Amino acid sequence: MKYLILLSLSVPTILWSQYLRPNEEIIYSFETKTGKKMALVKDKENEYIQYRFGIRDHIEMEFPKERTKESWKKFKYNSYLRGGGKQNSGMDLNYLSFTNNGYQYQLFKTYYAEDESYSTGITITDSKGKETNITGLYKTIKGCMCYLGDSGLIEKEDSGL
Fold first, then answer.
1. What is the per-residue DSSP string for 22-60?
2. What span, in angstroms and rounded, lies between the C-alpha atoms of 134 and 33?
3. What pTM was estimated for this model as a whole?
4. How far apart, in Å, are the Cα atoms of 64 and each of 13, 49, 51, 141?
5. Is omega for the bond preceding 12 within 30 degrees of 0, making it cis?
6. Can you tell me the distance from the alpha carbon of 140 to that of 107, in angstroms, rounded to the nearest whole number?
7. Phi, psi of 22, deg, nearest 5
8. 55-64 confidence digits (pLDDT tens)
9. pLDDT tens-digit map of 62-83
10. Rounded Cα–Cα distance for residues 29 and 27 (Å)
């Protein structure tokens, strides 16, 4: 009975670990209101980057499928930072985008000083421009996309701001 209890306690950890292999580290991750998890991971030696999304015991989507150096070229990062607090309408905006099977995915993390609002999530846009938003729980964030811009491994887009 004691072993059964120990096994039942360790199973969620084992299942959750499929989001992170031993040779990987989290760049950015969060959980959603529906209990799903988004994890953007990379190989510790920068051999690849990969987006993963799903539930605790099943990864529903991995992008790209191949874990190669070429994976870095499939993502685009942009950001904008304006300090100065409320009086300067300060903001910190971070976006990572990629296209998969005709859908545009954009991960985001934003902060606006005027109303002290924080948000994170995923916006998915289909080929007709219809958007679906997946809200992330800000308090579950691990990591930061902010380091991608200076990594030299990923294309950095001009935010236009």
1. TTEEEEEEEEBTTS-EEEEEEETTSS-EEEEEEETTEEE
2. 8
3. 0.84
4. 25, 8, 7, 22
5. no
6. 15
7. -60, -30
8. 977 899 999 9
9. 999 999 999 999 999 999 999 8
10. 7
